[in-house]
């Protein structure tokens, strides 16, 4: 009998929780003296295939239906077996389980997924019958095998839902009372939202469908942003989820979306789509059906797995068994998406008549290394600032970052930008430029300073914090940009005719030395300074 994959999902999570994730998955095999007579073989019936699976077994091993496996107390065997004989018996069972694992790998490589799972089923059953009796070697082998079986069953099950050409199975268009209720909402109070979202979809639909096709995922998933964000690229939820695909910061980070002072890639439509595809593929490998994947995308795989475990149901066969146990928002999420698909596949049936969607965004990418303001750049290349900002929504300050950045410009403006780039003024943050950071539970000033690449002392000065340990969750902090607080971030390079420089507010000896390609000690020596203290209006000799 083939064990349902949910058993292995829970087993796999349990094994990882117990710390087995650090194991290599390599199982030691202890040599056992070969019997004089040839070993017997057992034929395992395959429900889906008439061809038997023959695996050599030790005489003592009996393979039962996995759902009826019971561990017999060791005391029964110890009445007739010595300790050494019993350990040999347990080792034989582990060796046979390893034989099944190896056979499973061969079946899988041949594309025979059903028999591959059957072999793992038998291996798992044998492992669960082994009594280790605190024998360290047996314990390690048993845990290694459990980990190997759990990991491999997930891999095989995921491959069952991938066609030969790499495409995942399609999303089932279920129609039930829950879906009908969501259709009625779109026909009534949410009709305007649906129509406007459909129109906005045109900007991104071509790009999303192309990326889904490359990944082998169902094309219908391209409509998920309609219920996630209404295809509003800057949509922000109460849970701080952001962008077309509504990533929270932690999930975005997990799937490669960068977030710093200058950029939040959750707002980049293309990069966020790539991340969403990676997330959905991972969820599909865990759950195997798209309705459950959609629920997990909304509320997290952990919540769905806990619900499944508590219900103890065959969730892969019927997602709707979970419906009443999920959070209300998630419970609506799946039928809401299915309602969207039903309407889009037959608009007239549900009373909709859509106008043409918006035109796709057409742009060129230009790599730049200089930090510039978008409004200055837009003026230089002759485009509207709103258009340029709309092509680069991930720029949090509407300023390019100080490192290499691929800027998107209208399709015919790439060469214009390259020709004028040297003449475009570099942006330097004003003296009081800062961003606001809301302190989260567990954060310290040191962690916050590292995140923004600044110093604790700068944050303390900007916020009048005397003790660096005295911050609280929810507190708003000013974070000076580029590491400054009351200091200017640059020194004027204006020299008087006699080679002197007049000290201005915010200057420091170090900044002045850096500006004029010298060092602080040289300036101190040239100006007979006892220390680095300066005052406004003071004159420094720079060149003699």
Layout of helices and strands:
Elements: H1 5-17, E1 41-46, E2 49-56, H2 74-78, H3 83-109, H4 113-129, H5 136-160, H6 177-187, H7 191-201, H8 205-215, H9 224-228, H10 249-254, H11 269-287, H12 290-299, H13 301-311, H14 328-345, E3 363-368, H15 374-381, H16 385-391, E4 405-410, H17 414-420, E5 434-438, H18 445-451, H19 456-463, E6 476-480, E7 500-502, H20 509-515, H21 520-526, E8 539-541
Antiparallel strand pairs: 1-2, 3-4, 5-6, 7-8
Short account of what is shown:
The chain is mostly helical.
Helix run count: 21
Order of strands across the biggest sheet? 1-2
Question: If classified by CATH, what would the architecture of the largest domain be?
Answer: Orthogonal Bundle
Overall domain count: 5
CATH class bucket of the largest domain = Mainly Alpha
């Amino acid at each position: 009998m083939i064990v349902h994959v949910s058993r292995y999902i829970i087993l796999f999570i349990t094994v990882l929780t117990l710390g087995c994730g650090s194991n290599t998955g390599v199982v030691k095999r202890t040599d056992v003296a070969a019997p004089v007579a040839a070993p017997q073989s057992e034929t395992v019936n395959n429900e889906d295939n008439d061809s038997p699976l023959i695996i050599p077994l030790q005489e003592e091993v009996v393979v039962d239906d996995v759902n009826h496996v019971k561990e017999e107390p060791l005391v029964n065997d110890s009445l007739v077996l010595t300790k050494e004989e019993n350990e040999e018996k347990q080792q034989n069972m582990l060796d046979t389980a390893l034989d099944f694992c190896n056979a499973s790998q061969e079946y899988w490589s041949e594309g025979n997924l059903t028999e591959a799972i059957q072999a793992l089923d038998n291996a798992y059953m044998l492992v669960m019958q082994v009594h280790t009796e605190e024998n360290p070697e047996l314990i390690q082998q048993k845990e290694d095998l459990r980990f190997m079986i759990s990991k491999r069953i997930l891999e095989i099950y995921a491959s069952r839902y991938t066609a030969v050409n790499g495409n995942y199975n399609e999303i089932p268009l279920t129609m039930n009372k829950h879906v009908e209720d969501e259709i009625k909402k779109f026909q009534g109070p949410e009709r305007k939202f649906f129509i406007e979202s459909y129109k906005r979809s045109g900007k991104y639909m071509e790009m999303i469908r192309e990326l889904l096709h490359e990944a082998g995922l169902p094309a219908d998933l391209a409509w998920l942003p309609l219920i996630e964000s209404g295809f509003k690229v800057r949509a922000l939820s109460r849970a701080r989820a952001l962008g077309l695909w509504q990533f929270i910061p932690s999930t975005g980070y997990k799937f490669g979306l960068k977030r710093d002072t200058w950029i939040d890639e959750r707002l980049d439509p293309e990069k966020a789509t790539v991340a969403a595809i990676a997330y959905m593929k991972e969820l599909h490998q865990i759950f195997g059906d798209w309705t459950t994947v959609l629920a997990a995308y909304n509320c997290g795989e952990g919540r769905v797995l806990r619900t499944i475990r508590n219900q103890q149901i065959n969730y892969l066969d019927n997602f709707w068994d979970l419906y009443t146990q999920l959070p209300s928002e998630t419970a609506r999420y799946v039928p809401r998406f299915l309602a969207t698909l039903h309407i889009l596949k037959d608009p007239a049936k549900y009373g909709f008549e859509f106008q043409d969607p918006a035109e796709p965004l057409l742009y060129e990418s230009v790599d730049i290394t200089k930090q510039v303001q978008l409004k200055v750049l837009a003026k230089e290349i002759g485009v509207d600032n709103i258009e340029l900002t709309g092509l680069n929504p991930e720029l949090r300050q509407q300023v390019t970052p100080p490192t290499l950045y691929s800027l998107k410009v209208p399709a015919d403006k790439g060469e214009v930008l390259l020709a004028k780039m040297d003449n475009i003024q570099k942006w330097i943050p004003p003296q009081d430029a800062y961003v606001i950071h809301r302190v989260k539970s567990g954060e310290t000033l040191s962690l916050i300073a590292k995140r923004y690449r600044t110093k604790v002392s700068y944050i303390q000065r900007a916020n009048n914090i005397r003790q660096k340990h005295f911050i609280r969750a929810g507190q708003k902090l000013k974070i000076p940009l580029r590491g400054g607080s009351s200091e200017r971030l640059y020194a004027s390079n204006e020299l008087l005719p006699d080679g002197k420089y007049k000290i201005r507010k915010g200057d420091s000896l170090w900044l002045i030395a850096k500006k004029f390609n010298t060092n602080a000690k040289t300036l101190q020596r040239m100006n007979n300074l006892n220390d680095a203290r300066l005052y406004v209006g003071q004159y420094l000799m720079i060149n003699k």
